[in-house]
Amino acid sequence: MKQLVLAGGGHAHVQVLAVLATQPLPGVEVTLVTPQPTQWYSGMVPGVIAGRYAPEEAQIDLAALARRAGVRLVLDAVSALRAEARQLRLAGGAELAYDALSLDTGGEMSRDLIDGARDQALFVRPLQRFVQLWPQVESLAARQPGLQVVLIGGGAAGFELALAMRRALVARARVTLVAGNAGLLPGFSRGLRHRALSVLKSRAITVITDDVVEIEPGQLRLSGGSRLPCDAPVVALGVQPPSWLAESGLRRAPDGFIATGSTLQSVSHPNVFAVGDVASRVDTPHPRSGVYAVRAAPMLIANLRAWAAGRALGAYRPQRIALALLSCGDGTALASWGPLSAHGAWVWRWKDRIDRTFVESFGDGVQLASSPAQ
Ligand SMILES: Cc1cc2nc3c(=O)[nH]c(=O)nc-3n(C[C@H](O)[C@H](O)[C@H](O)COP(=O)(O)OP(=O)(O)OC[C@H]3O[C@@H](n4cnc5c(N)ncnc54)[C@H](O)[C@@H]3O)c2cc1C
């Protein structure tokens, strides 16, 4: 039997598992390595914080998916990879050999990008831990009216979470968004950024365009030299390459993530596939978001099947522009498609339907949902 290891239960691998339940890979033993038996669906996490979803509505049951797919489940995390030796080491100490490896582990949020963050801040990733710790901020706000909550990170996650926290904490806390020197929602159109700024203003969320350089007890130090009072710093910055990639021997893109080509294989090790945030397409670079990971899944499935059968692999071209739907925490959302943008309750209903459909489609493990939007 050939050994295929799926590392991480990210947006693409949940779909691989769903398909394997009805269309197994002949002659291949498949193993899923995941630290958690469920996958938090990030698109619904701001809704969980805002109290719009129950935690179980925003999770996909990986253990059940693996069971239905006849896939061996290993509850552990990859801690080292030796691509030449075709070997993984897991955090629990076990070694795992593979013939082919598919990586959908996402990126890591570094604890050391900002001085003092490791000890003082709440990090948005891993999502599991973030959602677990969030109630502590809520009870702090209940005990300490006027609590200063500061979101650090001006991307889509920081924007959505600032509004979700405002919704959850109501008037008990002051919410500030420190967007960084690049400003709010870099990479989005001017129209969308303008709309986003007015939504934040209307919810009394202060936006600061500066970088946080240090987190000290009770305050943040900004790159411009000023200090900002802060009782609860929440870090929502972008992801970095997982540390275990450093010694893997896999060729990496200039940004440090796994360099992949059109077949979703590593450009240096063709028996290693990588999709989602952990990979960087060197032929057609695109931003990191769940949408791209989801869209790559059908080609990943086809290519894993082709690898198993010894057939030629297919090429996948990511979309040039992706739809982004950003929840505002109040029953409205922003839509962004290239230069176009919109805001309203209808956008929220649209996002809610897409996200729920995606997560619920894994309830029976056989359906493939359409792509979620940001
Ligand atoms: C609050 C928030 C909201 C977001 N909303 C959206 C949105 O609405 N739409 C959108 O497109 N994007 C959104 N994003 C971005 C999106 O979350 C990521 O781009 C997306 O999750 C990447 O998907 P992935 O499949 O690469 O990895 P992930 O979804 O991160 O999944 C990786 C999986 O691998 C597991 N894993 C991690 N390390 C290891 C290891 N060492 N060994 C084994 N398994 C491991 C993890 O536990 C996890 O289950 C949001 C991000 C945040 C933080």
From TrEMBL:
One of its GO terms (biological process) is aerobic electron transport chain. InterPro entries: FAD/NAD-bd_sf, FAD/NAD-binding_dom, NADH-Q_oxidoreductase, Pyridine_nucleo_diS_OxRdtase_N. Residues 3-290 form the FAD/NAD(P)-binding domain. GO terms for molecular function: NAD(P)H dehydrogenase (quinone) activity. Keywords: FAD, Flavoprotein, Oxidoreductase. Its cofactor is FAD. It comes from the Bacteria. This is Pyridine nucleotide-disulfide oxidoreductase. It comes from Caldimonas caldifontis.
